[in-house]
Structures are given as C-alpha cells and as structure tokens.
Design goal:
single chain, alpha+beta, 6-stranded antiparallel sheet, 3-stranded antiparallel sheet
C-alpha cells in the first residue's frame, strides 16, 4: 500500500508549520508492512533527505514516540495517545460500542462505525467476530471512500457540492474485477444508495468480502458516521444481508442517533 502523506497542496498561510507536517509524515511512514525501518528507508518513504529524516526521527525518539535499536527505528505505544485524544473527544465512540457488541453477538460478524476523513473512511470503533478465520475491522484502518460501503452511504447523503469536492480528489483504482471503475458508475450507484438508505458492496475491496452499511445521524439530521458489517461472500448471500442483517443495523443506527440527539 502506498504511503499516505499529509496533503500540503494549495496556498499556505503564514501560520503554516512545515516542520510539524514533516514530523507527522515520519510517524505515518510506519505501517504493518514497515513496522521498523532504517534512516534511509524513512527518508525514502517520506521524500526527505537523510539529514532531515534523522533530525525528525531523533526528536520523536526523545519525545518517546519512536524507539531506536541500533540502525532500526520503530513506533512506540505512546503514538496511541494521539489517536486516543481523538477517540475520547468523540461521543459516538463510547455510545456505539454496546450496540456494536450486540450486532456482533446477533450476527456473528465483525462490525464497525466509520467516518469520512478526506477521501477515505476510517473505523473509529469496532466489535470483531470471535469466529476463527473471520475478517477483522481494525480501529484506525482506512479504506477508499469509493469502495467501502460506509463511504458510499455517507457520500450518497452529502450535499452535491460537498460530495463532488471529495470525488474531484478520488482516484478510481479498481481493487478487484468487480470494482467500480469510473465516476459515472459511482454516481449511478450513489443515487440508488441514497434512495434505499443503505449501501451493499460486493467483493469490490477484496474478493470474497461483502459489506453492508447504514448511516448514523446527529441532532441536526446530518449523517455523521456509518455502521458497517463485514461478511464472507462464501457464507452470507446478498439477500441474507438485506433481509436479516439490515434490520439489525438499522435498529442500532437509530438507537445511536437518538443517543446523540439527547
């Protein structure tokens, strides 16, 4: 997976702190496939020269966010404090957890709440199936807003101008032979999703993965998040998703919405 760096395009104000961007990009350079890296590898992934990358790595190490073992650098658990600051400030993460647990226990499937962040959807709370070989929905994991069911249901409910601003930045990069390949196809799909108020994505992110999502609204009636359930196409049909799982997701979404309103 390509490294996602912070977007610094466009006009910058005089208050823009470039060094903070570089420091955050160093943190974001580490992922599951790059759990530990040398100085040269960090410099290559961030587009910095070695001297610059070294300064940021050593500063982050002194702050406790990175650990150095000889030539290798890796993140420390302290990085989780950055994510926790966000999660603890968003009421839905606390409110949603018992409802996700209930969906998981009822369906036996992994379920999560996701929000749109730029051109991605990000899971902010989840309840994963305890069954062996079941797919896992990880908090903090990002998926393209185009191919994720949560992304589609939220996009479909956005004002047209706001939706188009997001789609102007999206690259249509099919992940399977079932993936939507153009903006025109997506707009047609979003129109249907808007009418039915749910999104079903069948093996567009990964062959064998099938997901369903419904929106959660705030007190102003605006969609702020989506609940999505991830299933295996080998065991759960699209008909079963709609007939059996959709009512369970809708009940939870409505309860969460009521809790956010109160």
């Amino acid at each position: 997976m390509a490294l996602k760096k912070l977007d610094t395009d466009g006009e910058k104000s005089r208050d823009f702190v470039g060094s903070l961007v570089h420091g955050l990009n160093v943190i974001m350079a580490f992922d599951a496939n790059h759990a530990q890296m040398t100085l040269s590898e960090v410099a290559e992934r961030t587009g910095m020269n070695r001297a610059g990358a070294r300064r940021y790595l050593l500063t982050l190490a002194q702050l406790g966010f990175i650990r150095q073992d000889e030539r290798q650098f890796r993140l420390t658990a302290k990085v989780m404090e950055l994510g926790y600051a966000y999660l603890s400030s968003v009421p839905i993460t606390t409110i949603a957890q018992p409802y996700l647990d209930s969906i998981r226990d009822t369906t036996g499937e992994s379920v999560a709440v996701a929000v749109i962040d730029g051109i991605d959807v990000v899971h902010i709370v989840s309840a994963n199936s305890t069954r062996l070989m079941s797919p896992t929905l990880t908090v903090g994991r990002r998926f393209s807003v185009v191919y994720a069911s949560a992304g589609r249901v939220l996009l479909s409910l956005k004002p047209e101008e706001e939706r188009d601003l997001i789609l102007d930045k999206v690259e249509f990069a099919p992940l399977t032979d079932r993936s939507i390949t153009s903006r025109q196809q997506l707009l047609k799909e979003l129109a249907q999703v808007r009418r039915q108020r749910y999104a079903l994505v069948d093996q567009e992110i990964e062959v064998g993965a099938r997901s369903l999502a419904v929106p959660v609204f705030n007190k102003a009636g605006q969609p702020v998040a989506a609940i999505n359930v991830l299933t295996s196409a080998a065991t759960i049909s699209k008909k079963q998703l709609v007939n059996d799982y959709l009512p369970v997701l809708w009940d939870a979404a409505q309860e969460i919405t009521r809790s956010l309103v109160n």
